[in-house]
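User: Watch each token:
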Amino acid sequence: MFKIHPSRYFPAVLSGTALVFAFPTFNISMLAWICIVPFLISLYSMDGHTAFRAGLFFGLPYFFGTQSWIYYSVNHYGGVSLLPSLLIVLLLSLYESLYTAIFGFLFAKAVKRTDLPLTIIAAPLWCSLEYIRGYLFSGFPWSLLGYTQYNSLPIIQISDITGVYGVSFLIILVNASLADIYLLKVRQKEKPLFPYWKTLSSVAVTAVLIAATLLYGVYKLRSVGTEKSDTRQVRISIIQGSIEQDRKWNPAYQRKVFNIYKRLTLEALKENPDMVVWPETALPFYFGRDKEQTTELTEFVKKSGVPLLTGTVLVRNRPVTKNRDGNSNNGYMLSNSAVLINSAGKLTYTYDKIHLVPFGEYVPLKSTLFFLDKLVKGIGDYIPGKNYVKAELPWGQFGTIICYEAIFPGLVRKFFRHGGNLIVNITNDAWFGRTSGPYQHFSMSVFRAVENRKPLVRAANTGISGFIDATGKVLKKTGLFKETYITEDILINDDISFYTRFGDMFSFLNIIFTVLLFISLLNKVERTQKYQGGVT
């Protein structure tokens, strides 16, 4: 059994805790550039296994602190009592902390075997693990370091090349440079011939990269959207119904919910929008299946003369199947979808959500692990969509991102590889309550706009709804749990960014570099051992 020495892991806990305050709703973004320094310095003096544990102690407060909002969803709407709800968040945080633990282990192993600056080891390794966390086991790229900078527009413009991971890279680069400076005398004392010029050179390179990033950011902030031949204006209205989650599908409130959206839309129509957007699953009925309400909606849109995009649950016909207990799917399944009704009242576009929420909209491995069916009874059972389809109106094309999909950079870019003008994100963040969840979710939308150089329209049931331009500037937004509407003129374009065209090339290069680095270090260790064996 290993012994835990609290003082030894204090720097890791301190860094992980401080990092929480760099994220919304605290928004002390500057903390991210310095608060990881104690963690990195402490790893230098640790063996691999101790560094692994330090990574856990860093990750637990970091992930638990930024994702504690999950307990509200599980407790308030999942019917799970407080302590088990917190335990669920703790277990998720523990899983995510494995990535920072692996970082600690590999970093500590590498730094002892080379004279390389910490920056060359830390930044590519961290970003490789962040990227993998976003894809492994369905992926959950929440709490990425780069999101702390969503308000720092000059810094985040680089995302149209690197994605959000490039901003994470810069943050680690600065932290590692500061740790490098602190450890320079220590490394020289351990190795009198230690090449200090490598450390000084890496610090200089870091400074140049930050300066270049800022210059690029200022240039993009001034140039994006200024070419009149490439841009045009469109006016959009967002309707925020602010419907409590426990009333949303209550039959007693169905008419009231529908009337709220119709009333707010009539008010918004006075501002002559080119399109109206309702949030995710805004309709309190099954569009197309509930004929009376569907006809009422299409006639309402036809009378308004303005296209309406709305979220809805669609009923899909499927072959009748039975599970091991003999329960049938009754020949239909549900999809979380978006539909566009044009100004003539006709359905012209349907998009089915592709990336569903595990244990929220579907149960992973349910067909293989049959016992899960009983354990998670009551969880939604939706079918995922397969096609990255865009809607088309006279003024241009747009892709619809539904809720959770907005946190996946690689998914969003696929809508725009072959063109498109606007990102529309419809979501229902009522699940998050008045926690930090809605604010963090909104901050990620800023990066999706910058990465793809497309303005983003965000319609959220209970907020935060808003308009974000192609540089990530928030033009207008709503508060939480406010029944309201907002209208804005936004500039759309035909640009295809480097990130949209080539995807996570930067992340792939980080992974390749990290793998080659550690292969090189392993070969170095083997050669040293053979040499020492020969001498002996």
